[in-house]
Please model this.
Amino acid sequence: MNTINKISRYLSGHRIQLAVVLCLFGLCVAQSRKVVKGRHRPKTDERVYLKHADMLRFNQYGEHAGAQILNGNVAFLHKGALLTCDSAYFYQESNSFKAFGHVKMRQGDTLSLTSDYAFYDGDNQMAEARHNVLLRHRGTKLYTDSLNYDRLYNIGYFFEGGKMVDRNNVLVSDWGEYDTETRKAVFNYNVNLRNPKFTLTTDTLHYDTRTSLANIVGPSVIRSKESVIHTSDGYYNTYTGRARLYGRSTMSNKGKEITGDSLFYDEKRGISQGYRNVIYKDTQKKNELHCNYLWYNEKNGFAFATENPVMMEYSQKDTLFVHSDTIKVITYHLNTDSVYRTAHCYNKVRAFRNDVQAVCDSLVYNTKDSCMTMYRDPIAWSGDRQLLGEEIQVFMKDSTIDRAHIINQALTAELMPDKEHYQQLSSKEMFAYFTKGQITQTEAIGNVRSIYYPVDDKDSTLMGLVYIETDTMKMFMRDRQLQKIWTSKTDGTWYPMTQIPPERYKLDGFTWFDYIRPINKDDIYEWRGKKDGTQLKNITRHAAPLQHIEGGELKSVAATENKPEN
Model:
């Protein structure tokens, strides 16, 4: 008897455990049918209405106890929606049914849902469609194998992979939801948006089917035939091809790359705009443009940069840095073998490279002949040598200074090793030639004046000062030492070091502008102009007299003055 009681207590205990497990299972099932977003769900008291069935029978017992078993052209009505299928189990007490075969739900004229199987809960207005599911809404189609459609909030969501197709795009993801009221969709995990012109890959994407606007909210890549965009925050209109990108995005196209805190892109016009910490890179030409605002047209290669712009050229080991108020880049013969560019830097230009530095008001760099032309009080330095003039042209070869051409009021000076005296040369026009960054020859033409100090080869002491006036002079140097001087005719004077007149130490217009010279790449941002009284003189130049016929006679007109711009 005791044995029987023990067995009875054992079985009774296990029945209780089994009951608890079944309750928990039922709770989990109920929870799985709730809306993912956890919204408040007011239950309707409107009943599901059986409109039609070819055959109906009631199963009180068995596997589907309490269900009405329906076959043939089954149709239900509930709150304005028509649901049809081949067969169904109708649970009138719970206001729900299971539908099988050619399941279709129609809601108004704009929405339909088809599948192989569906469960519909009338109290919660929730349809759970499975296998070969197709949701149609206006011009949008959603394909999946598992979709729950919430009629209360007009949201359909899938969780086992799905594909949405609209007029422009195909979107694929592991999970997603679509709001038929707002016509907006959210996609998560392995998201892929395909368009005839591009593809977008990400893990999270918000998409508006009305506007074709994709809202990017995570690390994403947009690839087209010629360009690639990396971003983690922004908007991309898949219909117009316009993008607004934030969060330090990057756009690449044909070896060119633009990075900025904010980027705006118009694909049809080929126009890009960048704001704050913008970096433009040309990986082929090995140059960069840094600024806080950039406007770039990829169709013609025109770029406009302002707000603290800096241009960098690093095709060789050394990098050239150029800073100004504004920088414009113009491209000629784009997409041809004869393509070349001009960079226009203007207002308060400062440039630095280890072998050459420069300061001027405006500068033009031409890649065709590798010529850098400086205007308005330009100054250039190379080592201990300073070059001045109204206009300075510096020609580069293999990214190293090759020669310089100084036009009008030309003056060069070189600081001697004693750091007190200066070799000086002035003329109307001047040419300087360099080898491996070192000056080897100077040619001065027109109103030439020269001051140089012969050096004793034994102890490198200065032997005196030689002052020369002539119309043409050539100076040849090696290792920064004067080797030979050639002149057409000479009018000069030798002064011993102890007998040099004070006025002979400096040529007219000479000033050593060491306080202006950029000392490193970071110093180019601080503008320092010439002190009052040291600017170049404004020289009035007269044009040839103009002539016209008056009364049958040739008359002369007073020449007009051509004054250089300040």
Q: What stands out?
A: The first helix runs from residue 2 to 32.
